[in-house]
Amino acid sequence: MRPLIVAIDGPAGAGKSTVSKLLARRLGLSFVDTGALYRTVALSARRQGIATDDDPALATLLGRIRISFKATGEDNRVYLDGEDVSAEIRTPEISLLASAVSARPVVRAGLLGLQRRLALEAPVGAVLEGRDIGTVVFPDADVKFFLEANPAVRARRRYEELFQKGTDSSLDAVLTDQTKRDRDDASRAIAPLKAADDAIRVDSSQLPLSEVVQSLERTIRERMAARGS
Questions:
Q1: Is the Cβ–Cβ distance between 107 and 57 less than 8 Å?
Q2: Which of 25, 19, 27 is nearest to 211 (CA)?
Q3: How far is CA 163 from CA 133, 166, 169, 206, in A?
Q4: Is the N end or the C end of the chain the one with fewer CB atoms within 10 Å?
Q5: pLDDT value at position 27?
Q6: Residues 73, 187: Cα–Cα separation, whole Å
Q7: Could you tell me which of 206, 204, 190 has the C-alpha nearest to residue 99?
Q8: What residues does 9 pair with on adjacent strands?
Q9: What tens digit of pLDDT does each residue of 187-202 get?
Q10: What separation in angstroms does the CA of 18 have from each of 24, 25, 148?
Q11: Strand locations in 34-189, DSSP E?
C-alpha cells in the first residue's frame, strides 16, 4: 500500500510549516518542507551569481546540488551540499528569490521528482506543505488542506518570526514583500498558488494553533482509519 500522503497548501504566513510539523510529529508521519527546497535552490543560485531567469544555468545547478533534510529534536534541518542552511534560507531576500525561482518551469520540473520520492519513501506516510502539493505534486493525495489567513494577520506572524530570529525589518516591509510574493505565486504560468478543488479550506486568522492542528488531525485520523493505516 502506498504511504499516506497529506497535502497542505497555502500562502506565506498561513501557518503551513508549523501546522505541518506538528501534525507529522503527532501522527508519526514524515515531514517534507517543499518550500525549503525552492529556498535552497534560490540560495545556491544567489551564491553562484545565477540569475533567476537563467534557465540553462539553473538546470545545471539542479543537476549538481544535493539537498537533504534531517530531523533534530523538534527541528527539521535543511542541508545544501552537506551545509546546514536552515536559518539562511528563511531571510526576506531568499523568500522573494525563491518565489522568482519557483516560477521557472525548469526548476519545478527538476524538483518535482525529488518531492515525490521523499514522500513515497516515508515508512508510514508524509505531510507535505507548499503551494502546489494538492494540485501538481500529489493531485491524488489522501487528504488535502488549504490554509489561509487575513493578509494583515499573516504579515504580523511573519514579522514576529523574523524578529525572534534577530532579523531587522518592519511590519510594513514584511507586508510589502508578502503582497508581492502572493501576487507572483498566484499569477505564475506554471503551478500557480490555488486551492485544489477537493481541498478542505481552513482560515486560521482567528484560530489558535492548537485548534487548527486538532481539527486537521481529526480529519487525517479518519482517513487513516478508513484505509486501515
A1: no
A2: 19
A3: 29, 5, 8, 22
A4: N
A5: 94
A6: 37
A7: 190
A8: 130, 146
A9: 887 778 899 999 999 9
A10: 10, 11, 13
A11: 67-72, 75-80, 83-84, 125-130, 143-148
pLDDT of residue 116: 93
Which parts of the chain sit beneath pLDDT 70? Answer: 73-74, 229
Q: Which amino acid is at 91?
A: T
Q: Which three cell numbers stand for residue 87?
A: 536559518
Strands (E), the chain: 4-9, 30-33, 67-72, 75-80, 83-84, 125-130, 143-148, 200-203
Place of cell 504511504: 3
Cell of 41: 535552490
Q: What contacts 24+ positions apart, CB below 8 Å, involve 112-118?
A: 112/136, 112/137, 114/37, 114/67, 115/32, 115/34, 115/37, 118/30, 118/32, 118/69
Question: Helix/strand/coil (H, E, C) string of 155-167?
Answer: HHHHHHHHHHCCC
Count the Cβ atoms, other than its own, within 10 Å of residue 217: 15
Cα within 13 Å of Cα(192), Cβ side: 8
Which pLDDT score, from 0 to 100, does residue 229 have? 56
Does residue 150 sit in helix, strand or coil?
coil
Model pTM score: 0.83
